[in-house]
């Protein structure tokens, strides 16, 4: 083990002139090493890093472009939907107005039809009353005529004797004969 530690200790004692070796001074070697590593990374990694950043930038731009296109499409659809909504609202208002006017028209028609029906029923009632009155009057006339005829027959039967009865029959036959001659 002593040989390994001696070799590291001996590295720190190397001569400066004309030889190559390790510098064990941490403060002196770290900034140089870091600058060399960073320089190599920048020199060789610059293209890869630029490509990665460009690819990322393109993906972001494409995503933004797609989002803008989708937003534009959504705005167009929204405008079409709003226009359709306005059309539907206008049609609904027209249907509502037309419906109210049709309801009022139907109401007026129904009222007029009801008045006409009532008027017809009133006319039928009046006609029925007139018919019934006429029938009652005719029945009364028939009864009065029958009673008058029965009274006249009763009076004739009581006042007529056979001779008067024969003369009346002969006169009536004569009148019938005269009427027959006129019609022939």
TrEMBL record:
<comment type="similarity">
    <text>Belongs to the ATPase B chain family.</text>
</comment>
<keyword id="KW-1133">Transmembrane helix</keyword>
<keyword id="KW-0813">Transport</keyword>
<keyword id="KW-0175">Coiled coil</keyword>
<keyword id="KW-0472">Membrane</keyword>
<keyword id="KW-0066">ATP synthesis</keyword>
<dbReference type="Pfam" id="PF00430">
    <property type="entry name" value="ATP-synt_B"/>
</dbReference>
<protein>
    <recommendedName>
        <fullName>ATP synthase subunit b, chloroplastic</fullName>
    </recommendedName>
</protein>
<comment type="function">
    <text>Component of the F(0) channel, it forms part of the peripheral stalk, linking F(1) to F(0).</text>
</comment>
<comment type="subunit">
    <text>F-type ATPases have 2 components, F(1) - the catalytic core - and F(0) - the membrane proton channel. F(1) has five subunits: alpha(3), beta(3), gamma(1), delta(1), epsilon(1). F(0) has four main subunits: a(1), b(1), b'(1) and c(10-14). The alpha and beta chains form an alternating ring which encloses part of the gamma chain. F(1) is attached to F(0) by a central stalk formed by the gamma and epsilon chains, while a peripheral stalk is formed by the delta, b and b' chains.</text>
</comment>
<feature type="transmembrane region" description="Helical">
    <location>
        <begin position="32"/>
        <end position="49"/>
    </location>
</feature>
<dbReference type="GO" id="GO:0009535">
    <property type="term" value="C:chloroplast thylakoid membrane"/>
</dbReference>
<dbReference type="InterPro" id="IPR002146">
    <property type="entry name" value="ATP_synth_b/b'su_bac/chlpt"/>
</dbReference>
<keyword id="KW-0934">Plastid</keyword>
<keyword id="KW-0812">Transmembrane</keyword>
<dbReference type="GO" id="GO:0045259">
    <property type="term" value="C:proton-transporting ATP synthase complex"/>
</dbReference>
<keyword id="KW-0150">Chloroplast</keyword>
<dbReference type="GO" id="GO:0046933">
    <property type="term" value="F:proton-transporting ATP synthase activity, rotational mechanism"/>
</dbReference>
<keyword id="KW-0138">CF(0)</keyword>
<keyword id="KW-0375">Hydrogen ion transport</keyword>
<feature type="coiled-coil region">
    <location>
        <begin position="71"/>
        <end position="98"/>
    </location>
</feature>
<keyword id="KW-0793">Thylakoid</keyword>
<keyword id="KW-0406">Ion transport</keyword>
<comment type="function">
    <text>F(1)F(0) ATP synthase produces ATP from ADP in the presence of a proton or sodium gradient. F-type ATPases consist of two structural domains, F(1) containing the extramembraneous catalytic core and F(0) containing the membrane proton channel, linked together by a central stalk and a peripheral stalk. During catalysis, ATP synthesis in the catalytic domain of F(1) is coupled via a rotary mechanism of the central stalk subunits to proton translocation.</text>
</comment>
């Amino acid at each position: 083990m002593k040989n390994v530690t001696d070799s590291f200790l001996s590295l720190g004692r190397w001569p400066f002139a004309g030889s190559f070796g390790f510098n064990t001074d941490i403060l002196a070697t770290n900034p140089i090493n870091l600058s060399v590593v960073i320089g190599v990374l920048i020199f060789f990694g610059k293209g890869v890093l630029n490509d990665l950043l460009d690819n990322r930038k393109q993906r972001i731009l494409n995503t933004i472009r797609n989002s803008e296109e989708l937003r534009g499409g959504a705005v167009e659809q929204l405008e079409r939907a709003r226009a359709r909504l306005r059309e539907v609202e206008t049609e609904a208002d027209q249907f509502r107005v037309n419906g109210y006017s049709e309801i009022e028209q139907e109401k007026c028609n129904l009222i007029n039809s009801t008045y006409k029906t009532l008027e017809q029923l009133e006319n039928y009632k009046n006609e029925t009353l007139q018919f019934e009155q006429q029938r009652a009057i005719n029945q009364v006339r028939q009864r009065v005529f029958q009673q008058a005829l029965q009274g006249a027959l009763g009076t004739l039967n009581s006042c007529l004797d056979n001779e008067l009865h024969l003369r009346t029959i002969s006169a009536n036959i004569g009148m019938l004969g005269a009427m027959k001659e006129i019609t022939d």
